[in-house]
Specification:
mainly alpha, 72% helix, 0% strand
């Protein structure tokens, strides 16, 4: 079914997160390292989908070699980019040219966020990304938190802006169908994403997965579905002919992603809670 930007249960959830997002920011950015290898990979826009995937994969290898916790999210995102690019080559989508522009624009927003952080331009970063990158730099968050902070910033903040730039029309129904088809591709990567977390000293993810059967995968997909549909509704609102609706949509996009990031980091408010969560994440509890 085609969805517009009408109020839904998902919008109510967005408002709940937005409440957390309007509090004064508590940002803890360290002094920028300005790593030349990272900057060389992110200082210029991607030329095309192939260039985006190649440079994302290379950046991920750099992060891995430096034990940079930004690799937790980037591993998952690189897998997703490769899978959607393969779908474009197979002509899976009704409008592969639009999906190519969509994928390229989406990747370029991530590239720009990494560049601004690495170059020390933290004041120009969306708060959701700054919170995610600060957590990765501290290195004291859970592996699952590092992953979800990146997913939140990229889907709950970047995706609506991506759709605004590539356009949700003309032929909005077809574009929505292709947007949903991208979600279908992401569905196939849930197990692969979980495996990548397990490989990062988060063996407890596998234990939880075994305990819940397919229920956790279903919940993950449901959450991604709603976040991506919310991004679509926000993009529709950003194309409204009414300026107040556009301003509200832009504010909600920033406030929701910021609020969600703060909720994801909530375990850090209690040493005992955070330690218990860390033990759960590690299967051996040690």
């Amino acid at each position: 079914m085609f969805h517009d930007a009408s109020p839904t249960g998902g919008r109510r959830t967005q408002l709940k997160y937005a409440v957390s997002g309007v509090r004064p920011p508590r940002l803890e950015s360290p002094a920028p390292a300005g790593d030349p290898d990272v900057l060389a990979l992110v200082e210029t826009p991607y030329a095309d989908v192939a260039d985006a995937h190649r440079r994302l994969a290379t950046l991920n290898r750099v992060f891995e070699s430096q034990r940079d916790r930004r690799a937790v999210f980037l591993t998952i995102y690189t897998q997703m980019t490769a899978a959607v690019a393969a779908g474009i080559r197979r002509r899976t989508f009704a409008d592969p040219e639009w999906v190519s522009e969509y994928l390229l624009t989406f990747a370029d927003l991530y590239r720009a966020a990494v560049y601004r952080y690495e170059a020390g331009r933290h004041e120009s970063l969306p708060t959701a990304w700054r919170l995610a990158f600060d957590a990765a730099a501290r290195g004291d968050s859970l592996v699952v938190q590092d992953a979800m902070l990146g997913v939140n910033a990229h889907i709950n903040y970047d995706l609506a802006l991506t759709l605004e730039r590539v356009g949700v029309g003309p032929n909005r129904r077809q574009k929505y169908a292709d947007h949903h088809a991208v979600t279908d591709v992401i569905r196939t990567l849930v197990d692969e994403a979980q495996d990548s977390l397990v490989e990062r000293d988060a063996d407890g993810v596998a234990r939880i997965d075994d305990s819940f059967g397919r229920a956790d995968e279903w919940l993950t997909v449901l959450t991604i579905d709603e976040c991506r549909d919310s991004a679509w509704r926000t993009a529709v609102a950003l194309h409204s002919r009414f300026p107040p609706r556009r301003r509200l949509a832009r504010w909600l996009n920033a406030a929701t992603s910021t609020g969600a990031a703060r909720l994801l980091l909530a375990s850090r408010t209690s040493d005992r809670l955070h330690a218990a969560a860390a033990d759960l994440e590690r299967a051996d509890g040690g």
